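TL;DR need structure tokens for one chain.
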Amino acid sequence: MKKIRVKLNVNGKNHILNVPSNKTLLEVLREYLGLTGTKEGCGEGECGACVVIMNGMAVNSCLVLVGQAGNSKIITIEGLEAKGELHHLQEAFIKAGAVQCGFCTPGMIMSAKALLDKIPNPKEEEIRSAISGNLCRCTGYAKITKAIKLASSRINNEQI
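>> reply
TL;DR here they are.
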């Protein structure tokens, strides 16, 4: 397989990689950069387990060939933690009981972060729309929606 040279900024760090051109962003994140928080569920863009933020937008990393991601700014679930502290979304998911098996959680949180970055105080229908591409088979969506509302409140300095 032909290799390509690709430059990525992942979680604030620059990487220059020589990888096979048929690799997805998901595969590169997990196999080449060791960022295993991003999960592979369906591999077809249907479940949302692999969502990352690329240039400010939530994307299914299983559908993005690494060449398409060249020169992009990418944030994964690992990039949310800062100075040993969880992100407000991560804390809210724990507090609201929105985590059970945890497989969907990274993608769900990344979809929620992309939403909150654009709409800091979203309405419930905006939250549901933002996570509509993420499947959860354990929790249902009530606790997840509650967690996103909690995080929004904290981000907006409102009392949780």
